[in-house]
Amino acid sequence: MNLLLLDPCEITSEEAILTGRRSTHLRTVLKVAPGDTVRVGVVRGRVGTGRVLAIEGEAVRLSVELTDQPVCDLHVELILALPRPIMLQRILKQATVLGVRRFYLIRSRRVEKSFFHSPVLEPEKIHALLLEGMEQAMDTWLPEVTIHQRFKPFVEDVLPTLAGKGLIADPAGAGTLAEGPVSGDQGQRLLLAVGPEGGWSDHELQSFADQGFYGFTMGSRILHVDTAVVSLLAQLQLLYDLRKR
């Protein structure tokens, strides 16, 4: 836990009282004492420091000072064909660590219907995974996650309303990521589409192409979806940093 995240409603008169998982981490892992300071942030808000005022049983009372707003130069939204639940857990956390601002979990031809009934998709579970990613990355941006069980309505009704340059990973794609629309402009918005283990169907690829998505290949090796997502997000950030103006 690199950043102690607080909900705005937990702060009263610039103080917060923590119990549960966060208090346990402070007391047993960081072994804080009154007067110590820790990094804190407010979900969807600023970051700063928390000074330990007292340890009262299993509760820790903090004085909170929030001074800085986290900055995100590159805004990436991930369109993901819903993977297996165990893989989805890894992706939600790691993609949040790598700065994804919004997730669209969609149905494609090679996605099993049963995946949409997984307990991993319960709002509480998703929220917990996102918080873990935010704590690791020291970010206060809480990504939004939307679930779309039908491909056609998503592509025809939702996709046209989204802002950003579109990219779609395809092992048979003609282009490369380096040739894609990553400009380095501050605040650039990108929509990254990653398919299922078996890949996108021809119809699905054409549907994204009709919406202006740029198709690219990552090379001859076929990666697991969670590996591909992490690799692509890291490459996008590197390209953006190299081209930043």
Overview of the molecule:
This protein is elongated. It has six helices and 13 strands. 31% of the residues are buried. Helix 2 runs parallel beside helix 3 (123-137) and helix 2 (85-97) runs parallel beside helix 6 (225-243). It has two domains: 4-68, Beta Barrel (Ribosomal Protein L25, Chain P), CATH 2.40.240.20; 75-243, SPOUT methyltransferase, trefoil knot domain (Alpha/beta knot). The mean pLDDT is 94. Helix content is 30%, strand content 29%. With 245 residues, the chain is α/β, with parallel strands linked by helices.
In brief:
Helices cover 30% and strands 29% of the residues.
Features of the shown structure:
29% strand; Ribosomal Protein L25, Chain P; Alpha/beta knot; 245 residues
Blueprint (SSEs and pairs):
Elements: E1 4-6, E2 11-12, E3 15-18, H1 20-29, E4 37-42, E5 47-56, E6 59-68, E7 75-81, H2 85-97, E8 100-106, H3 123-137, E9 144-148, H4 151-158, E10 165-169, E11 175-176, E12 189-194, H5 202-210, E13 214-217, H6 225-243
Parallel strand pairs: 1-4, 7-8, 7-12, 8-9, 10-12, 10-13, 11-13
Antiparallel strand pairs: 2-3, 3-6, 4-5, 5-6
Helix pairs in contact: 2-3, 2-6
